[in-house]
Structures are given as structure tokens and as C-alpha cells.
Design goal:
With 306 residues, this protein is of the alpha+beta class. It has 15 helices and 14 strands. Helices cover 46% and strands 20% of the residues. α5 packs parallel to α7 and α10 runs antiparallel to α15.
């Protein structure tokens, strides 16, 4: 179950425990109040820590997320004052979450959405985007803390000790079939050569009236499904299961993108787990989108659209 620190209370946790919930993912995002204000979050660090302690008391396995690569005030003096003050240290936040019994951590780079306060501040010049090199070094420092605690990066943005990976998310990354229930929920049914995607209406009244009549169905073409499977597989250190890919699409992945695999040879390794797998190494995950763009460009000619 996912929850926000400001909405978690004993009654909610008791209901989870009674229903058999074993894992809670908490939207911490930061343990720095200034960063939380910038992100427009209603909770503060003290609430996040209290929520984690409360959940741990119910015996739940804890997961938390943090947001990295935050923008900063453009004025250099203000930036220095911010850095010299309480400031934000991603690695320190990671260390604190480990002290609070968090056993799984997600670290996402901030994605600025149009129409948000941050977007307006960036456009006006009040804020400037995070420096890519500094953000990279910040993440590496945080990863060093995680590695010392026995965590490994098993997906682009996710870290956990071996055996504590999120099985729920792994189902998405393997492109297994899954059913989503509720307004706005999405289901994907894997089929031989393609997949069926079902999106429920976001209108609660329409959903309760007749969900099936108000859902939107879309058949994903074989090529698009093949690329999605590759995209999801390469997000993880488990990598793409080559035998599963060939069985589903009747094509060998290596034969579809030979130039890409050759060009990226130094960044490609055998994936985690059994069977024939291909995965990107640590540096490859950092530049995943470039690799996927190369795969897609080559697949557009090697895998004709139906």
C-alpha cells in the first residue's frame, strides 16, 4: 500500500494489518522542510519520520521515496547561504531513512510538470535547474551509503537488499499481465505477439454505473509491445529475458537490434537471474534513454509494423 506521511494514522494501519498488508511505501520525498515546501508537499520532515516509526510498530516492511536533482535559487549568494545552512544532503537523508528501518528506497530525479509552481519559478528565473554533474555526484554519494548497508541498485531508480525487491513493480517491468481496479486504473493483458491495454474511466459516477461500458481498450501492436518489453526489461539489472521475448514475438531480440548491441557492447552484460538475459551495467542505467532511442530507431526498420 502507498501512503503519504500526513494521512497515515493508527486506524489506517490497523485496517492494513487486518487486511494482511505486509508492505508500506511512504511518499517521503525529502527530509528537508525547505525542499518539501519547494515541492508543494503538505507534510514536514518530522511527520515523515513519525509516520515511518508508527508503521514500523505494526511490523510492516517499509519503502520510501526521495526526490533528487531539485532546482535552487538562481542568485549565487542565496545558493551559498542555502548550502551553508541546514541545507539538503541526499546521502544524509538516505542514512536517516535507513536508521528508521526503511528496507527499500526509490530515488527519482525531479520531473517538472507544466503549470506547476516550480515550472513558473524556473521560467521567471527565480530558480535554476540542478547542475547535472552535481546531481550525479549527489546520487553517487547516496548510493555509497546504500551500498554500505547492503542495498543494490536493481532498477534505474530503486534500491534494496537482495531478495527485498518490490515484487509488485517487477511485474510491471517484466510486462506480466496485471489488472487495475478503480477509476483511472490501467490493466495490461499480455498476449502472444502483442498486448491489450484497458484504461478505466476517471469519472467515479460512470465507473460505479458500469465500468465495462466506460473503459477504453487499446490493442498494442506487436512492434510497440516488443519495444515496451525491451524498455521495461532494460530498466532493471535483471535485464531482458531473451527466451521470453522470442517466445512472445517469434523474433530474436539480438537479430532486431544488432547495430545497437554492437555499439553499446561495453555497457551490456548478462542480467541477474536464470536463463539468457541482457542488461545494462551501472553506467548504462544512467544513460538508459539514449540506449532505448537507439533500439527504437533500429526496430522501426527491422520489425515492420503490422
Amino acid at each position: 500500500v502507498e501512503a503519504n506521511p500526513d494521512s497515515l494514522d493508527p486506524a489506517c494501519l490497523e485496517a492494513m494489518a487486518a487486511a494482511g498488508v505486509t508492505r508500506l511505501s511512504l511518499g517521503v520525498q525529502s527530509l528537508d522542510d525547505g525542499a518539501l515546501v519547494l515541492l508543494g508537499r503538505p507534510h514536514r520532515a518530522v511527520q515523515a519520520e513519525a509516520a515511518l516509526r508508527l508503521a514500523a510498530g505494526y511490523g510492516l516492511r517499509l519503502s520510501a521515496d526521495l526526490i533528487a536533482a531539485l532546482p535552487s535559487p538562481r542568485d549565487s549568494l542565496r545558493r551559498r547561504e542555502s548550502a551553508a545552512g541546514a541545507g539538503r544532503s541526499l546521502s544524509a537523508e538516505v542514512g536517516r531513512l535507513l536508521e528508521l528501518s526503511v528496507g527499500h528506497l526509490s530515488i527519482y530525479d525531479l520531473v517538472v510538470e507544466e503549470g506547476t509552481r516550480i515550472a513558473a519559478s524556473l521560467e521567471s528565473g527565480e530558480l535554476e535547474e540542478a547542475d547535472e554533474d552535481e546531481a550525479w555526484e549527489e546520487r553517487r554519494a547516496a548510493e555509497a551509503v546504500l551500498a554500505k548497508a547492503g542495498f543494490r541498485r536493481y532498477e534505474v531508480s530503486n534500491y534494496a537488499p537482495a531478495g527485498s525487491e518490490c515484487a509488485h513493480n517487477l511485474a510491471y517491468w517484466r510486462m506480466d499481465s496485471y489488472v487495475g481496479a478503480g477509476p483511472g486504473a490501467v490493466s495490461t493483458i499480455a498476449e502472444e505477439g502483442g498486448s491489450l491495454r484497458i484504461e478505466e474511466t476517471r469519472n467515479l459516477e460512470a465507473y460505479l454505473g458500469c465500468a465495462a461500458e466506460n473503459a477504453r481498450e487499446e490493442r498494442i501492436s506487436p512492434r510497440d509491445s516488443a519495444f515496451e518489453l525491451a524498455m521495461m526489461g532494460f530498466r532493471t539489472r535483471f535485464g531482458l529475458d531473451l527466451d521470453s521475448f522470442a517466445s512472445r514475438f517469434g523474433k530474436e531480440f539480438e537479430e532486431l537490434v544488432p547495430r545497437t548491441l554492437s555499439a553499446w557492447n561495453e555497457r551490456i552484460s548478462a542480467g541477474w537471474g536464470r536463463g539468457r538475459r541482457l542488461a545494462l551495467d551501472e553506467r548504462g542505467l544512467d544513460i538508459l534513454n539514449r540506449f532505448l532511442a537507439d533500439c527504437l530507431a533500429e526496430m522501426e526498420t527491422s520489425f515492420p509494423a503490422a
